[in-house]
Design goal:
alpha/beta, six-stranded mixed beta sheet, five-stranded antiparallel beta sheet
Length: 350
């Protein structure tokens, strides 16, 4: 499993959240909520923290401040860092504390609503780069397989309005496939996806990705259905070892552009990845995917549900309430999920 899974997140006045205090499972974490409840904002916070720690080694607090501020700006793309604080009258200060299991010191930082690009780090987890082998991977709602290596050059050389998660994930997608004894292990994990892709595998040639299918040959990624390109991304990341036995997967709405059969495969794959050692964080508001995740649940497994919902207070002081529980039914009612269930009941009685 991930050597240092994220165990707890505490935050105040960050984004739409007045207060966050959530404990996570070292295996599967499912984040649910209505539109505009801050699900992607929440997910990107965890990714930014893990990625900055992963890429930093033996840095002073001053150097880490610079690296963290740069990553926050690159992932969220605000005009100024202070824009990431909660909107209030007067000045505000965002505080974030993240605890990694097995590490004595927390990652703790804060910044002001007046900050341009400055972060103040209070404490750093004492983890060397050699020990921190867990790779954080962020999969956005949009597939990335149709983007060639030229996108990376474009990203590095020009000011573009794409957040850094795209660049980070593309770099991992371009890693070569595994060789040696780990190939059999990867093949077993990737098998359910390959079946959905007609036993296809993902290959790279001159910076472009292709879906290689028996009896058909290579099909350029842009010619593959978008839902299948999302599945193919996962195939590639497992085949090259980025998602094998460890690390963190942050997946924003995996159900987007996938039919129910593919969503069912995604649910089982997320369980398989978590069981194999990856700490998984998935954001969804699909009742179908949630049901599949629940039905595929092994009660012996450690699953955590996180619910985000906006309160019904005055719009000028509205906030997102964050809850967590070991069972989905233990969370307060979420309107978007209720609406889909209510529609299903109306359809059955129609």
């Amino acid at each position: 499993m991930a050597r240092y899974p994220i165990r707890r997140l505490e935050a105040q006045s960050f984004g739409p959240f007045r207060e966050i205090d959530v404990e996570f499972s070292p295996k599967l974490n499912i984040v649910v909520g209505d539109n505009s409840s801050g699900k992607s904002f929440f997910l990107k916070l965890l990714y930014t923290a893990a990625k900055t720690v992963k890429d930093s080694d033996n840095l002073t607090k001053k150097e880490f401040n610079s690296a963290l501020a740069s990553k926050l700006m690159g992932v969220y793309r605000p005009d100024a860092l202070g824009r990431l604080t909660r909107r209030t009258k007067g000045a505000a200060r965002a505080n974030v504390d993240i605890t990694f299991a097995g590490v004595k010191q927390r990652l703790s930082w804060n910044f002001s609503s007046r900050s341009k690009s400055e972060v103040s780090t209070e404490s750093l987890p004492q983890i060397s780069k050699e020990d921190f082998e867990d790779e954080p991977i962020y999969l956005p709602t949009h597939e990335l397989l149709s983007l060639s290596a030229s996108f990376l050059s474009f990203f590095e050389n020009y000011e573009v309005d794409f957040d850094e998660t795209w660049r980070d994930t593309l770099l991992l997608l371009h890693q070569p496939a595994l060789r040696g004894p780990r190939v059999a292990e990867a093949s077993k994990l990737v098998s359910p996806f390959s079946k959905l892709l007609s036993d296809g595998s993902v290959v790279e040639n001159n910076g472009r990705f292709y879906l290689k299918q028996p009896g058909i040959g290579n099909l350029e990624a842009p010619l593959v259905a978008e839902g299948h390109r999302k599945l193919a991304m996962l195939v590639r990341l497992i085949a090259n070892g980025a998602l094998l036995n460890s690390g963190y997967l942050f997946w924003d709405e995996p159900e987007a552009n996938l039919n129910p059969a593919s969503q069912k495969a995604i649910a089982h794959a997320l369980r398989a990845l978590a069981a194999a050692g990856t700490q998984v964080f998935v954001v969804t508001h699909s009742v179908f995917l949630l049901r599949e995740l629940q039905m595929s649940e092994n009660k012996a497994e450690d699953t955590r549900y996180v619910g985000l919902s906006r309160d019904s207070g005055d719009a000028s002081d509205a906030e997102v309430v964050v809850q967590s529980a070991p069972e989905l039914d233990d969370l307060d009612v979420i309107a978007a999920l209720d609406a889909e269930v209510e529609q299903a009941e109306r359809y059955l009685s129609w």
